Amino acid sequence: PGEASAPDGAAAAAAAAAAAAGPCSPPLPAWMRLYFYGMHGITLDILLSSAQHFASTSDPRMLGFSSPYLALAHCLTHWALEKLYLHKRSFQGRPLLFHLLLYPSAYVGLQGAVRGWLAAGPGDALLGALLLYALALYHSQVLLKRLLRLQYRRAAGSRARGLHGLPDALRFLFYGMHGFLDEIVFTSLFNLVEKADGGLAGHTSLWSFLMYGSCSFVVEKLYVHLHDHMGWSTWQRIPIYILFIYTWEFTWGLALRRYGACSWDYSHYPLNVMGLITLMYLPGWLFLSYYQDVLSNVLLRVHCPKNRSQKANFANGKLKTT
Asked: What are the transmembrane regions (predicted)?
């Protein structure tokens, strides 16, 4: 009897700990991971192209370039890389082989093909391969390792409320990257209509990351206050968002223009104020304000595991929680 009581006591303690931790939430759904992969890929496109552009022009606007086509390509290639990463347990006895050779080789091959670096000259191709190798290590050792541990609470009343939700810094990064996505999609569609050449190339500025990231972060705080604490409906909140967005865009534009770093000029549009804001874009801001509510509601349900026993696990290349 004395020997049997020890396992029983351990089982009871484990059950109590599991009950205290609460039920496990599922990992991030596939659509959310695909969305992030496309957005993250566009961000890397912009960072790399902006560095090249600034090195050759010293343009303080820090322009970067990408396209919706590349966003789709990033979604698909990173999805394939995730599937490969989920099989890493097959190499438990040889982790260095997987992390230093197999995964980086797949990453360099796929991303090199997407970016067209493999067709460059020998010197440029070698430099590009080395850069992609470093990005592959970041992707497997930092990005995927943390992204696949995140969990998503689907129930409407089960938002993380900040206790174990994403830190403010990570939400700021998400909103900044989403600002890049917004700019690339908008400018590519605008260029498609204006030039009518069938191209979908878009551009943005590195300063947009800070502008969109900070703006959306504050609007998220407004969403929590107006929705959760004051009970305002969506259409009551949106005018507040619009007023704040226009104020934010005007303030940032005024500051950037002083140093020649402002990447937009609406002087040729009617209903503009100093070329920094225009009411012509009001329909677009209305849509993005509504979409911001959707993003905030989704992002506030994403959280980190409460303890190390509640984390994403891998079995036969599939993602699950334990």
From this structure: 96-114, 126-148, 205-226, 238-257, 269-291
Residue 22: predicted pLDDT: 47
- Contact assessment for residue 31 and residue 317, using Cβ atoms and an 8 Å cutoff: no
Q: Which residues of 284-322 are buried (b: 16+ CB within 10 A; e: fewer)?
A: ebeebbeebbebbeebbbbbbbbeeebbbebeeeebeee
Give the number of residues written for the chain: 322
pTM over 0.90? The answer is no
Q: Write out pLDDT tens, residues 124-159.
A: 778 888 999 999 999 999 999 999 999 998 765 555
Angle at alpha carbon of residue 157, lines to 151 and 160, rounded to 5°? 40
Question: Please, which contacts does 226-232 make with residues 24 or more away whose CB atoms are closer than 8 Å?
Answer: 227/293
Angle between helices 103-115 and 122-138 (to 10 degrees): 130
User: Which residues fall within 8 angstroms of residue 270, CB to CB, at 6 or more apart?
Assistant: 278, 280
